From TrEMBL:
Gene3D superfamilies associated with the record: Cytochrome c1, transmembrane anchor, C-terminal, NAD(P)-binding Rossmann-like Domain
GO biological process, one term: polysaccharide biosynthetic process
Name under which the protein is recorded: UDP-glucose 6-dehydrogenase
Similarity comment: Belongs to the UDP-glucose/GDP-mannose dehydrogenase family.
UDP-glucose/GDP-mannose dehydrogenase C-terminal domain boundaries: 339-454
Task performed by this protein: Catalyzes the conversion of UDP-glucose into UDP-glucuronate, one of the precursors of teichuronic acid.
Superkingdom assignment: Bacteria
Length: 470
């Protein structure tokens, strides 16, 4: 019947589509799952025999893909073919902030979602459940429904039943770096929709491994808005604690002591209270700006301004850290070597989208610094794209330059400062006497994540600044 899903297609083989479908396929061996993408390069990488070469790095992902790929998990560029075979299609394409036109800089660009909906409208056969997995503005399901409706009823022939569609919203709450754990043991799964049969069909997929009471059902608009709201609340906590970190530095308080004290209140909770260089990642900023845009659209200026401040504070925090490095290095970093520890937007991912390291490094390059960057998962070519200049260029002539180095010791070599920006575990266990010996004195550690052992660094003779420590 309609309510049993046997074949799933996911449009978009990115950070969400890839891991999410891998877990669904792993947990539902009786369902065929095909992940499609326009990027042949990305699909080839998902199909690589060497599981360490998957396009997304997530702890545990290689094992899940290894179990399911070729059995009931497939990666393909044959988009229309996979849609035609599917009972259910996830749309998991990118929804970045618009760069031009109406709403530029705030509204989400829905052109990839719209293109996906048009392809589904064209290629689908019989009844198809279409699921928004991408994070979308409230009421986008209406747009998708309209595009699909235009082709409903067509395709009637002896071999082909008429096309029909049900649209659901099923936002994804996974965080990068813990994607597999989040997918295998979600706090909740959210399904929004109007068609009970479609909702139950999708719920049955998750029911293979998620407890029934964790599968929440809402109307479409609540589901879409819950995703934006969850990210807004999470990001707001980070801006809140970062604002208090600055205040701690000014007053002699310690933000980690404050976080522990307030986090012990069960109404506040202890998670997501880590002060740092500001939040990065592809979604927080984009989703809040989208919320801000929608609030303005509905005439809610005060609500828009309230959420906008979360992003403003985050920019300020990133800029504050770059400036503090410069001012402590006697007001100039021109020609000075600075070791940058970490480039990814958080630990355990190769993703650099909106990484605070980008803004901070660019600011230091602008001032003529020579950066020696170490990150275990970010490639030199990715750094070059993000920094807008190739490795090595400009060295020696007062222009800023950078290079990727393999180890902390090389990052420290000849450097006046180390700047810790990503909380990779390896930075907690640095051999400080060895590092201090290769740095130029007086040497600094600027620890924007409070990850390093500051006491050991001090004992080795470094001056230490730690975020949120007065
Ligand atoms: P991504 O850029 O990594 O992947 C999107 C993929 O979609 C790309 O590979 C692109 O080539 C493909 N694509 C675009 N248009 C297509 C089309 N018409 N046909 C076939 N393929 C197409 O993006 P992502 O990080 O996976 O994010 C996807 C969505 O999920 C976004 O809306 C994002 O806000 C949301 N989200 C992301 C995360 C996260 O941690 N990254 C978490 C939750 C939700
Ligand atoms: C975030 C949310 O946590 C996910 O629930 C959501 O699905 C996802 O966005 C999304 O919609 O894309 P993600 O951005 O992958 O996930 O990672 P987070 O762990 O939330 O970290 C985001 C940023 O905040 C990172 O730069 C991180 O270092 C920073 N952060 C996080 C802090 O500075 N302090 C904290 O206490 C927590």
């Amino acid at each position: 019947g309609l309510s049993t899903i046997r074949s799933i297609c996911c449009i978009g083989a990115g950070y969400v589509g890839g891991p999410t479908m891998a877990v669904i396929a792993d947990r539902c061996p009786d369902v065929q799952v095909t992940v499609v993408d326009l990027s042949a390069e990305r699909i080839a990488a998902w199909n690589s025999a060497d599981l360490s070469r998957l396009p997304v790095y997530e702890p545990g992902l290689d094992a899940v893909v290894g179990r399911a790929r070729g059995r009931n998990l497939h990666f393909s560029t044959a988009v229309e073919e996979a849609i035609a075979a599917a009972d259910l299609v996830f749309i998991s394409v990118n929804t970045p902030t618009k760069t031009k036109g109406l709403g530029a800089g705030q509204a989400s660009d829905l052109k990839w979602v719209e293109a996906s909906a048009r392809t589904v409208a064209k290629a689908a056969q019989g009844h198809t459940i279409v699921v928004e997995k991408s994070t979308l503005p409230v009421r986008t399901a209406e747009v998708i429904q309209q595009i699909l409706s235009a082709s409903e009823g067509s395709g009637v022939s002896e071999t082909q039943p008429a096309k029909s569609f049900s649209v659901l919203s099923n936002p994804e709450f996974l965080a990068e770096g813990t994607a597999i754990a989040d997918l295998e043991k979600p706090d909740r799964v959210l399904i929004g929709g109007q068609d009970p049969e479609a909702i139950e069909a999708l719920a049955a997929i998750y029911g293979h491994w998620v407890a029934p009471q964790k599968i929440l059902r809402t109307n479409l608009w609540s589901s879409e808005l819950s995703k934006l709201t969850a990210n807004a609340f999470l990001a707001q906590r980070i801006s809140s604690i970062n604002s208090i970190a600055a205040f701690c530095e000014a007053t002699g308080a310690n933000v980690r002591e404050v976080a522990r004290a307030i986090g012990a209140d069960s109404r506040i909770g202890e998670k997501f209270l880590q002060a740092g260089p500001g939040f990065g990642g592809s979604c927080f900023k984009k989703d809040i700006l989208n919320l801000v845009y929608l609030c303005r659209h509905y005439g809610l200026e005060e609500v828009a301004a309230y959420w906008e401040q979360v992003v403003t504070l985050n920019h300020w925090q990133q800029q504050r850290i770059a400036r503090l490095v410069i001012s402590n290095l006697f007001g100039t970093v021109s020609g000075k070597r600075i070791g940058v520890l970490g480039f990814a937007f958080k630990a355990d991912t190769n993703d650099t989208r909106e990484s605070p390291a980008i803004r901070i490094c660019r600011e230091l390059l602008e001032e003529g610094a020579v950066l020696q960057i170490v990150d275990p998962k970010v490639s030199e070519s990715q750094m070059a794209k993000d920094l807008g200049q190739p490795a090595g260029a400009g060295e020696g002539d007062g222009d800023g330059s950078w290079q990727r180095v393999p180890e902390v010791l090389q990052a420290a070599s000849g450097a006046d400062a180390l700047l810790l920006l990503t909380e990779w575990q390896q930075f907690a266990v640095i051999d400080w006497p060895a590092v201090a010996a290769v740095m130029r004195q007086p040497a600094w550690l600027f620890d924007a994540r409070a990850k390093a052992d500051g006491a050991l660094a001090r004992a080795a003779g470094l001056q230490v600044w730690t975020v949120g420590e007065g």
